[in-house]
Structure formats: structure tokens, C-alpha cells
Amino acid sequence: MPSANSVFSACGTTIFETMSRLAQHHGAINLGQGFPEGLEPPPVIERLAQAVIDGPHQYPSMMGIVPLRQAVAAHENRFWATGVDETEVMVTSGATEALAACLFGLIEPGDEVVVIEPLYDSYLPIIRRAGGVPRIVRLQAPDWSLPRQALADAFGPKTKVLMLNSPANPCGKVFDADELAFIAQLLEHHDAYAVCDEVYEHLTYDDRPHIPLMSLPGMRGRCAKVGSAGKIFSLTGWKVGWVVAAPTLLAPIAKAHQFLTFTTAPALQAAVAWGLEHAGAYMANLPATLAARRDRLAQGLAEIGLAPLPCHGSYFLSADFRPLGFKGDDRDFCTHITERAGVTAIPVSAFFETDAPKHYARFCFAKTDQAIDEALGRLRRYFA
Asked: What is the annotated signal peptide range for this record (predicted)?
């Protein structure tokens, strides 16, 4: 039989699916995958139910229904003052599809793409399938500082795109204004684009503001910004995302999108449009709720003996488990606590290409207080 595609054949099952299956098998509390609990806004869900009844139920435009494109543009201008309009918005079937459309639409074979580790696990397979060559720069744990010289050295004459994830999964880093200004200078000097994964744009803590790279001088035409209704409204199963970009940049991305998912369920789009227009209080209050849950989990992990790392955004808190005296690596640790303590986490090495640090586990804190307390209780009893 002929061989299948080499890029995807070489990929294993995603670590999120692997650990979630293990959690189900052992009845573990799943603090691995980013499943928010107790955070879904009822009015937005009710709006979806009505939209399903009202219809329509046929293909909407591949660019997205007009009310949602208008709502995304209004949301961008209300929060980030980027000056976009509905012609610069394209709706996608989730943010991962948006990322794929951006990369397939922008990369030619041989183009280099600068990526920053630790990174979301879909980036590298998509870059390579598009013919791109990743140039990897690593944030420095435990504070996830940006190595500026290494980043500058990663750029060259073949650089086409920088992938920027802020707030970042898995490490919770929020890039500050000075770091973003440095990145903008590199993009201008090398005449490169940025694909900005900003799905956690509303989930920043400790008075750390989210700053879209697109909002910086000279970046308006260089950035394709990816957003996610699933992250904004804690409705990750809805899979409604979008790309915001200047028309000339959005055009090739839209051509890729039309051959990926083409379009997204119209009822979901209508409900998200309503939420962006009417659920401002929910968006404003969610960060405080999640910051409290982060602190609850971090304090409990520290009392058990782990060493939590800084987290200023996203759903995820990483912790160093070496103080517990565990002798295996992070995959061993996450499997061990799933099977023996009944709590599941994700090994952080899954977010690195090679030579990964293997003493960190990532825990999701977008859970109920009861789930967090029960998980901490199980870990406390086991490690005691």
C-alpha cells in the first residue's frame, strides 16, 4: 500500500485526547484539557436555542453571517480600538481552523515561520504540511521571559510569518508593550507577517493588560488576529472562531478557509453575535472569577509541595513537581497521578519540539471550586 502523508503520519494522538481518555478510564478529575466548568453564560445558550428554532438552516456565507462579522468588528473596536470593519472579519469553525487557514493561505514551500515555545500543539504540523520551515525560539522558565537576541536571530531573509500566542497556552504568559514593540520592529525590518493567536484575549490577570499586536503602529496590515467565541464565553464545544485582518491579507486566508470547513453553523453564529453585543458584563467579570480559581489551585498545589509557576493569562497553571521527590519525567508524573491519585494534568513537554523540560505539569483551573477542592484533596491524601 502507498504511504500516507509523512507529516501527519508522524504525529501521535494529541496529548489532550490521550490524557482525557486515561482520566475517563480511571475516574479521575480532569484538570488536563481546557474544559471550563460552571462558567457558561445561560443567556447566550438560550439565544442559541431560539436561533435553532428560528433558522435559517442552510449554508451561510463562507465569510460568516453579517451580524456576527459586524459584532466581531464592534468588539475589536470597543476593546482594542483597532479600527476594523466587517469586511476585515472572517468566521471560522473554531480557532484551530482559523490558524490552519492563516498558515495555508500565507505560506509558500520553503518559507520560514518563527514560533515561540512552549507552543500550542497544532502549530508545527500545520506549518510543515503547508511547506513551511519552523524556526523555534524558547521562552525561559520559570518566568517565561522572552530571549530577545534568540528571537532576532531566528528571523532571516526567508522569514514569512511569526506565530504569536498571547495570552499563551500553556504557560500563561502575557506579552507586555515593550516585548510587543520589539517584535513589531523585527516584523517591519524583515517585512514579515504575524499570525496572532489571541483566543484568551479577555482572560488576563494581575492587572496585566492584553495588547493586540495589531494595535501597534505599522502592524495593522501585517497581522492576522485569531479569536474564539469558545474561550470568550466558556463554550469550547461550539467551535466558532474568526480571523481579523486587512482585506489584502484576509483574501488568501479566505481562499484556504473555503477548502477547509467553508462555513459554520448559522445558529451558532447568531448566538455568538448576540453574546458579543449583549454579554459585556459576563466578559468583564470572568477574569476575576478565573483569577480566584487560579489562586485557589496554586495555593493548594504549593501546600502539597509542588512549585507553581507564574500565570498571568489563559486557563492554565504549570507547576514544578520535583520538590515532591518524584523520579520520573512529566509524562510519568501525569500518568501516575491519574492512575494513583485520580487527578489528571498535562505534561508540559508536549508543548516543545525537542529537549523539552520534563519536570512541569499543566493544570486547568477553569473548573468549579468544588472540582478544584476535590482534586487538591485527592493529591493531598496521595502525597501525604
From this structure: none
Domains and CATH numbers, the chain: 6-40+282-383 (3.90.1150.10), 56-279 (3.40.640.10)
What's the mean per-residue pLDDT of the chain?
A: 96
pLDDT band at 84 (very low <50, low <70, confident <90, very high): very high
Q: How long is the chain?
A: 384
Q: What is the pLDDT of residues 309-336, one digit of tens each?
A: 999 999 999 999 999 999 999 999 999 9
